[in-house]
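Q: How do we represent a protein-ligand complex in a form that can be generated token by token?
A: Start from the inputs.
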Amino acid sequence: MSEAILLVGGKGTRLHPLCTYTPKPLLLVAGVPLLTHQLARAAAAGVTRVVFATSYLAELFEREYGDGSGLGLELVYVTETEPLGTGGAIRNAARHLTCAPGEPVLVFNGDILGGLDIAALRDGHRASGADVTLHLTRVADPRAYGLVTTDAHGRVEAFLEKPERPEDIVTDQINAGCYVFTRSVIDGIPEGRVVSVERETFPGLLETGAHVRGVVDRTYWLDLGTPSAFVTGSADLVRGHVDSPALPGPPGDALVLPGARVDPLAVLSAGTTVCEGAVVDAGAVIEGSVVLPGAHIHGTALVRRSVVGRDAVVGEGTSVVDAVIGDHAHVGPHNELPAGVRLDCGVRLPERAVRVSAPTYAF
Ligand code: GTP
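Then emit the structure tokens for the protein with guanosine-5'-triphosphate bound:
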């Protein structure tokens, strides 16, 4: 028996408007929910029981996974009436753990795509006798993350949350959002209030002299919390740059899910996914993008590094670059949306309403 807690209660505001009707961990990445990739990897690493810490759109998780038998896992759902933050959520979920105080418990953020050897992290934690082990990764630009410095033995020295001044960027090691806690440490987190594990629990443990380990891992890692990371992660899965037992087909340049209709004269590339029920007409060009279920891309449209929401429409000759088109939005023909635009769910743009050269347009 090996237990895990999955943190899936966040609102996913940075992905707006993608999480209006779907929580971030259930967004389709390479055709299946992001969380399914994580759960498949956890099951392959010997995890047998997972407690979901839910809050935002909580009921959708149980609807998706039920009791977990389809994944070979036992799943338990715990819902916070008010979001408790990462630490509060872990504490709240721990009421449903069954393991003994000395046993290791894996904790995952629900928005990470990665190739980490989860079993090795857990087994290393057990062998080291640490209180907490953190998965760390190295990134080129660490400013948007929580930095973690370690000594020569991998013992964590300090946590620095999202440093702004250049002199505070003392390492490129960041908190990768996967932890192993010795269960008794979770039981020590205050109950019934908001707690940030990154800002409160971990620094507090260091102050009390607890053994906090950091394991730097160089396998693939991406936080899919922003639109550009989201399309990159999906495309990397499709092209086989990161392994997932849940990928619904062989790796390749594009993934077309059963039930999608793609005209042979459409051009799909750079790891594009076209989901079930979506339609792509002749002459459309789609590069490195995610076309969600029921969306319709009309002929000669260009969609590049973008997400097209459920049942959304991109009209003929329209170009959409680095954009997020919300569910049920309708972009009429011959529009040139400004790069980076986010169209809210259900918005309707008529034909030729937007030219890139028209800077007065507000969305
Ligand atoms: P943004 O709003 O875009 O920052 O995304 P987010 O709400 O998901 O926040 P963030 O990426 O910082 O969260 C990291 C992980 O913790 C994600 O898997 C979230 O689902 C989860 N999480 C964040 N806050 C809470 C909370 O209050 N309760 C629970 N259960 N999970 C949370």
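The helical segments are 34-44, 59-65, 85-94, 118-128, 183-187, 197-207, 227-238. Residues 7-14, 24, 53-55, 80, 83-86, 89, 109-111, 225 surround guanosine-5'-triphosphate (CB under 6 Å).
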